[in-house]
Design a protein that fits this description.
Structural class: alpha+beta
Oligomer: single chain
Number of helices: 34
Helix content: 40-55%
Radius of gyration: 35 Å
């Protein structure tokens, strides 16, 4: 291992990095060393590499867990500014470690980083070596609450993980650290003793005093304008906090207070450091970014229609952004082409993690000329009585660059105007496309955008090259510091990673020849076909649902590989195993025909690799993760449910809303209040409520949060709880997403509703509702889930949205305005769900006033769709709309029938008087009110509503208002 550290040090120093020493106080990551977190601030260039022992008390396991240590070794690299090719430099460092990057599957997988305590965040990847995360690779965007300019590249190697993979050992203690000395021999004692201290022996009161003293000293150093010692004391605070947290002695209130204090101090340190460097005149100088390239001024001509090829080359895009960007680029190119006078075939766009490829066949060689007419003033205002031009027409002619005598005339709406008509020469296709394609790149945006070394561009990941050809003719595209060329980049490990492209025609085949399958649909089909064949070889079927898009867009050339794991792990609940496979490793599980899990999986590597080597690596990764899961499983089974539940007091939920224990108590109480409205098995509900969310305190769920509910069911069943209680605890978490399974029991449904309405009432109450695409608490999902559960349980119709939110607000400070905002938010989710299901927009709008009771709205929508097109129903709708149009909204629904004397109005009164008033539902309303259609129409044909006699007019309007208000609760008739 020490040789690896030396090799990395030499590699990076050979590339301009200076070496600094590990910081002389405990840090949780190399990022916190001032050589990173302070040096990334400000405009000075900075390249550094160093080893950093990273101390994380909560990861202490007494040296027993094969993959977890309280002190692990990071190797940290900062490249400021971004050199333009950091990924290629990184791959070179792996080769320096002796890793054959051509044989192994090395991939950059989306993993964004944020530290609210530091006011820092960045976008990037975790780097996988045959499925094992070995490095964090981040473009630092902000630190200390300050936007970074220039952006720094942070590369953080996990040395123990890398060495375990390289040396093929299954425990960190077995790593060969130096000749004849293992890691365990060198550091095993320290690992055990520090674990003892952090988990068992640290004096809580002494550490609390230290926290206060360190925070006070940090404050004093800030006041003295000494950012470096101030930062040192902030780090000491952070470490002491982590010690107290590992001891389980931090309450929710203390956690929030400590985080706020450390965050404030860290931001002040950052600001003071930047200020001091500025005062010193930035001794290291100011980093230079690439210059903006000049816009092209000359363009080649083409003489015949040709295919346009435009490729936007990027570093690895997040999988969902591949799909999103393909759609966005297709829309942009199509719209911009349509705005020109060029003709072309249909725009096709393909995407992989590293490229977006646009192909447009039969683009015309140039635009046709066009006449452009600009209308001027009226002729009557353009010339005086003697026919002399007025100032108005002279100004118009001057603006058009022509003489008054050359102006023509046009007639619009029988009015004659002067006009200027000129011929606008068509531009060549290359010139048109040059500007058009540049706009497409400049306007690219994603859900999360970042900066790199480009002075102007911003996108989800760096854009590194552009390729543009019209047939064989280069199309010059200039965007910020990027200029298009006639080459593309293929696999970084290829003998020639940059290759020339001579023509746009046949480009997909050209890429395929270099091991790149750019068509996403074809990649997906390749994966499914190969994975099915591999699964069939072991008597199974592969499970691809919910994962295929992501796996497809993680690779450019899919290479499915069958792997296996030991059958003993099948003793764990299957959902634990599949969660690890799917969520953490993006493996495709293999099952028997009847759904039982088999000890196999399919991993999808990228490109040509050594299949045996990659298989072994992925199997080792999965084995380590399953060992972790088995460790947590065994530990949790020894822990009483009430003890796990007690641990929720240590978990913060949200500011002003207390701990997760407080939230669990509110859920149980709210479910009980719901039970007073509907019939339910109270014994099951009350017991499940008492245990609500207990599994959040389990080691398994702390490590694998997506297993919440699954583990509640498993642990409750094994602890002797009834099957009904275990089921309700699981169903409380349902649905987890749109289209997910729903609760099947009433206790489960009530707990699910209580969970979601507590979220909505509480978070809307403190003003934490979603903004834009930001929804950190999943309130959109919660609202949709609540509505979906209500729709699935007609017997719960008494629990309307206003009732549920009102009951959820008990004990919370929630304003009426906040509850109404939450109600409207839930209604909007219901509306979108109906539209997504394909229901006609006008029908959805018609039933939306009933959405406070989603069951009632659903029933009405079904009846409306059944009645639509029925001649009698359509006639009734038309008659009711006539009523609504003529009656002012303020007219009250009452009238004196004795005033009515005209036969048509008397007939309408008698028909309306005979309609039953106790009907429920649209179908019943139609059956009861159908007889009103004729009398209403006759009334309007024969009666003047606005009679001169005020009493008569009032009676007529009151009669119509009564009909209006009778129909109003059924649905919104105006939408039909």
């Amino acid at each position: 291992m020490q040789d690896a550290l030396l090799a990395l040090t030499k590699y990076w120093t050979d590339r301009g990095c200076i070496v600094v020493q590990p910081f002389n106080t405990e840090v949780g990551a190399g990022t916190l060393n001032p050589a990173t977190v302070l040096r990334v601030l400000g405009p000075e260039p900075w390249r550094v590499a160093y080893v950093e022992p990273s101390v994380r008390p909560d990861d202490a396991r007494y040296g027993e867990n094969p993959n977890r240590l309280q002190t692990h070794t990071q190797f940290q690299v900062i490249l400021k500014p971004d050199p333009g090719d950091p990924q290629e430099l990184y791959l070179g460092s792996l080769e320096a470690l002796g890793i054959d990057v051509r044989a192994h599957d090395v991939r950059f997988v989306e993993d964004n980083w944020a530290s609210p305590a530091l006011g820092a965040w960045g976008l990037g990847w975790e780097v996988w070596l045959d499925g094992l995360e070995i490095t964090q690779f981040t473009y630092f965007q902000q630190a200390g609450g300050m936007t970074l300019d220039p952006v720094s590249v942070e590369i953080t190697y996990g040395i123990e993980r890398i060495m375990m993979a390289l040396q093929g050992v299954d425990h960190f203690k077995k790593i060969a650290y130096a000749p004849g000395i293992s890691y365990g021999e060198a550091f095993g004692q320290a690992e055990y003793e520090m674990s003892r201290y952090y988990l068992d022996d640290a004096d809580v009161e002494a550490n609390k005093r230290l926290f206060e003293e360190f925070a006070t000293e940090a404050r004093r150093m800030l006041d003295a304008r000494l950012p470096v010692p101030a930062h040192s004391f902030v780090l000491k605070c952070s470490h002491i906090f982590n010690v107290l947290d590992a001891r389980g002695s931090i309450s929710t209130t203390e956690r929030a207070r400590a985080f706020g204090r450390m965050r404030g101090l860290a931001r002040e340190v950052a600001a003071l450091w930047a200020e001091r460097r500025s005062e010193l005149g930035h001794p290291l100088g100011v980093a230079e970014l690439p210059a903006v390239v000049e816009k092209p001024s000359s363009f080649e001509d083409v003489v015949a229609p040709a295919t346009l090829l435009f490729e936007i080359g990027t570093e690895e895009l997040p999988p969902h952004e591949v799909l999103r960007t393909v759609d966005a680029v297709r829309s942009a190119v199509t719209a911009k082409l349509e705005a020109t006078r060029l003709t072309s075939g249909e725009v096709t766009v393909h995407g992989t993690p590293r490229r977006i490829v646009v192909l447009v066949p039969a683009v015309s060689p140039r635009e046709p000329d066009a006449e452009r007419t600009v209308r001027g003033p009226r002729v009557s205002a353009a010339f005086d009585a003697d026919g002399n031009p007025t100032k108005a027409v002279q100004g118009f002619a001057r603006g058009q660059g022509v003489e008054v005598s050359s102006l023509g005339r046009v007639v619009e709406n029988d009015v004659e105007f002067v006009a200027s008509t000129r011929t606008e020469a068509g531009r060549g296709a290359v010139e048109v496309l040059s500007g058009l394609l540049g706009e497409v790149v400049a306007e690219l945006r994603a859900e999360k955008n970042m900066k790199w070394n480009d002075p102007k561009l911003s996108f989800t990941r760096p854009i590194r090259w552009l390729l543009a050809l019209l047939g064989r003719t280069p199309v010059p595209v200039a965007v910020s510091s990027l200029a298009s060329g006639t080459s593309t980049r293929v696999h970084r490990t290829a003998d020639e990673p940059v290759v020339e492209v001579s023509t746009a025609d046949g480009y997909l085949d050209f890429l395929a020849g270099h091991g790149i399958q750019v068509d996403g649909t074809a990649r997906a089909a390749t994966i499914v076909a190969a994975a099915q064949e591999l699964a069939a070889s072991v008597g199974g079927v592969v499970e691809v649902d919910g994962l295929l898009d992501e796996v497809t867009n993680l690779v450019e050339w899919p290479t499915p590989i069958l792997g296996s794991f030991e059958e003993r792990y099948l003793e764990l609940p299957a959902q634990i195993l599949t969660t690890v496979m799917r969520k953490h490793q993006r493996y495709l599980p293999v099952r028997t025909a009847d759904g039982a899990l088999l000890p196999h999986f399919v991993a999808v590597a990228n490109g040509s690799v050594d299949a045996d080597l990659v298989r072994a690596g992925n199997e080792a990764v999965l084995r380590a993760r399953y060992e972790d899961a088995a460790f947590f499983w065994r530990a949790d089974l020894k822990t009483p449910l009430e003890e796990m539940k007690a641990g929720l007091a240590k978990l913060t939920f949200a500011d002003k809303l207390g701990s997760m224990a407080d939230r669990a108590a509110r859920i149980a109480a709210l479910a009980g209040r719901f039970a007073s409205v509907v019939e339910v098995d109270r014994e099951t509900l009350d017991r499940a409520g008492a245990l609500a969310k207990f599994d959040l305190g389990s080691q398994m769920v702390i490590e694998l949060s997506s297993l919440a509910g699954v583990m509640a069911r498993e642990y409750a069943a094994r602890a002797g709880e009834t099957p009904e209680v275990a089921l309700a605890l699981w169903e409380m978490e349902l649905p987890r997403s749109a289209g997910d399974a729903l609760p099947s029991s009433v206790p489960g449904a009530l707990l699910s509703l209580a969970d979601r309405f507590d979220l909505l009432a509480g978070l809307f109450g403190i003003g934490a509702q979603p903004t834009g695409s930001s929804d950190p608490f999943g309130l959109r999902r919660a609202a949709l889930g609540a509505v979906t559960v209500l729709r699935a349980f007609p017997d719960l119709r008494e629990i309307t949205l206003p009732v549920a939110l009102s009951l959820a607000s008990v004990g919370l400070e929630v304003s009426a305005e906040a509850l109404e905002t939450a109600r409207e938010f839930a209604v909007r989710r219901y509306e979108q769900a109906l539209l997504d299901a394909g229901h006609e927009h006008r029908f959805v709008q018609a039933v939306l006033p009933l959405a406070d009771s989603p069951v009632l709205a659903d029933e009405t929508l079904a009846q409306l769709e059944s009645l639509a097109g029925n001649e009698s129903f359509d006639a009734l709708v038309a008659a009711l709309q006539r009523v609504r149009r003529i009656v002012p909204g303020a007219v009250e629904a009452s009238y004196d029938a004795s005033v009515l004397s005209e036969p048509a109005e008397v007939a309408l009164h008698e028909a309306f008087d005979g309609v039953p008033r106790d009907v429920t539902g649209l179908a019943a309303f139609f059956a009861a009110a159908e007889g009103l259609t004729g009398p209403i129409n006759t009334f309007f044909d024969e009666v003047l509503v606005m009679a001169e006699d005020e009493k008569v007019k009032a009676a007529r309007l009151g009669l119509l208002a009564s009909i209006r208000d009778f129909a109003a609760p059924v649905l919104d008739w105006t939408q039909l």
